[in-house]
Amino acid sequence: MQVIGLMSGTSIDGIDAALVTIQGKNLDLNVHLHGFSTYSYPRQLRQQLLDVCAGSPLSMAAFAQLDDAIAHAFADAAQQLQAEYGGSADLIGSHGQTVFHRPPSGSHLGYSLQLGRGDLIAHLTHLPTVSNFRVHDIAYGGQGAPLVSRVDLSLLGHPEKSRCIQNIGGISNVTFLPPLGQIDDHGSGVIGWDTGPGNVLIDLAVNHFSQGEKTYDRDGEWAATGEICQPLVEKWLNHPFFQEPPPKSTGRELFSPDFLRACLGDAQAYDLSAADCLATLTDFTARAIARNYQQFLDVPPDQVLLCGGGAHNTYLRQRLIHHLAPIPVLTTTEMGVPVDAKEAIAFAVLAYWHHHHCPGNLPSVTGAKAAIPLGQAWG
């Protein structure tokens, strides 16, 4: 079956689209990537999304218009991808664009909202579309995140080595995979959670210091010219989120423009330059990941495999290597799953599993009461 996976993460930097052929059942899958592209949001639409994620109010009419606009952008990406790579898909799996995420608390279910209507994507592309992947996990008491851990197990599990699959998007999340021989059919032993900020604070700071001329720190070049302020890193790591045990999830609601403003306010006492602030925020991101491993893993992994946009940030990767030493830090590309395409591939797989009535979540990761198929089908 040929499936298109569509994904836009918390960095809101565009729509990742992957065209794959998937064969097999349950965890025993063969996935072949035919083509991958990232399609930028129109500038005005991206800014509107950033504003909404930062708390800007919308009327219901404007909300509906935004939902439709994102669906059109996702449908266009699916059609362009097929035209570019000559494919003819049977199914679309669309994550949509997260604009709000609230983890569960006590007896209260969580809430997660992804815009980009699956019914409209199905209507525009004339292809069956699976969307709204998070809601069923949340309905079963789960976090609704991270959702790709079962895909990580299927595609990146190793017979003998334990691995941390570390995604660094706007928000960072990890899946810990024991050796395959130690994992049963229900994924027992696999754990995962959101580790905290990925690129989000760095990107916001770059935009701030460049007065809107830049949206990210390419290869970490700007941060690499600065000096890290370790007292600030230690202070920021005292935030309660980092002390919470898994399962846990977060988003731009916490690691927000307000969070960055507080960080920059803290930095004033140390007379830091823009480069110093970026170096400190980058090290904070790396330290947060390493601290999560130290606090919540019984044993360190044999390997760490990076994916997501942050895997391209050379300085961030250097800081991770430093803080995780002597654990080897590699990329999923080196294991056959391209760094940039991995999340889009994952939602193609989740749609495939939904089509075959196969569970998509791992309760040991999300905290849900059961393993269930994820998503709603349209068309």
Protein model, in words:
The longest helix has 26 residues, at 60-85. The chain is built from 13 helices and 12 strands. The protein is an alpha/beta fold and 379 residues long. The strands form 2 sheets. Strands 1, 2, 3, 4, 5, 6 and 12 form a 7-stranded mixed beta sheet that branches. A 5-stranded mixed beta sheet has the order 9-8-7-10-11, sandwiched between helices. It folds into 2 domains: 2-147 and 341-378, Nucleotidyltransferase, domain 5 (2-Layer Sandwich); 149-335, Nucleotidyltransferase, domain 5, CATH 3.30.420.
Please provide a brief summary of the model.
By secondary structure, this protein is α/β, with parallel strands linked by helices. The chain has helices spanning 43-53, 60-85, 118-125, 134-139, 149-156, 200-209, 230-236, 240-243, 257-267, 274-296, 314-324, 342-355, 363-366; strands at 2-8, 15-25, 28-39, 91-102, 111-115, 129-131, 163-168, 171-177, 191-197, 303-307, 329-331, 376-378. 38% of the residues lie in helices and 21% in strands.
List the helices and strands and how they pair.
Layout: E1 2-8, E2 15-25, E3 28-39, H1 43-53, H2 60-85, E4 91-102, E5 111-115, H3 118-125, E6 129-131, H4 134-139, H5 149-156, E7 163-168, E8 171-177, E9 191-197, H6 200-209, H7 230-236, H8 240-243, H9 257-267, H10 274-296, E10 303-307, H11 314-324, E11 329-331, H12 342-355, H13 363-366, E12 376-378
Parallel strand pairs: 1-4, 4-6, 7-10, 10-11
Antiparallel strand pairs: 1-2, 2-3, 4-5, 6-12, 7-8, 8-9
Helix pairs in contact: 2-3, 6-10, 7-10, 10-11
Pathway: Cell wall biogenesis; peptidoglycan recycling; Amino-sugar metabolism; 1,6-anhydro-N-acetylmuramate degradation
Enzyme class: transferase
Family: Belongs to the anhydro-N-acetylmuramic acid kinase family.
